[in-house]
Amino acid sequence: MLPFALLAGGLTMTSATDVVIFAIACMALNVLVGHTGLVSFGHGAWFGLGAYAAALAQRHWFPDPCCGRRCSRLRSCAVAGIVIGFFVLRRRGVYFSLLTLAFSALTYAIAFRWTAFTGGENGLGGVTRANWLGVDLENRWVYYTLVALVGLMVVHGLARFHASPIGSVLLAIRETSSGRNSSAMRPSATG
């Protein structure tokens, strides 16, 4: 129903696709903030890092196949995750949040100032969608349908993830850290 509602409102299929993509990114942020209780200001940097990795891989290294772009995006995010995670995950509380904000500011500065590689403020032009399994992803309806199916799979996967023992551990992390903060703020009975 989303594309029809947005088309009736004067928007395009690209807007409908963007809504679903941003909803997937928000669901990932909800895992971190809502279930674990860790406030991150750098979530958009990971989203952008994956997008830039795929676009740059297509422009510079893998013009044809989509597999090369997908692998380069995963590799780029994995390497950055290991390096950044080494520093950020050792911190708690406000320091965790500030380090994620610093990482986000750093990726923003690199993306917008390294114009020879990333296109800077003009962005990256000439990025196309590939044919995948004989399906033309340049067709906006086909591409929206694929993105919506991926979005539904993410919703289903996250529901199963949160019902799993790992999901319970994430809730325990949140409750432990919020309990620690609330007990530190309570006045003592002797004072």
- Can you count the beta strands? 2
Number of helices: 8
- Helix percentage: over 70%
The count of domains is 1
- Give the CA-CA distance, first to last residue: 59 Å
Shape: globular
Instruction: Indicate the radius of gyration in whole angstroms.
Output: 20 Å
- Please indicate the percent range of residues in DSSP E strands (runs of 2 or more): under 5%
Give the class from helix and strand content and strand pairing.
mainly alpha
Low-pLDDT sequence parts: 182-191
Strand order of the largest sheet: 1-2
Give the oligomeric state of the chains in this entry, treating copies of one chain as homo and distinct chains as hetero.
single chain
Described by strand count, sense and barrel closure, the largest sheet is: 2 strands, antiparallel
Mean pLDDT: 78
What pattern of helices and strands is seen along the backbone? HHHHHHEEHH
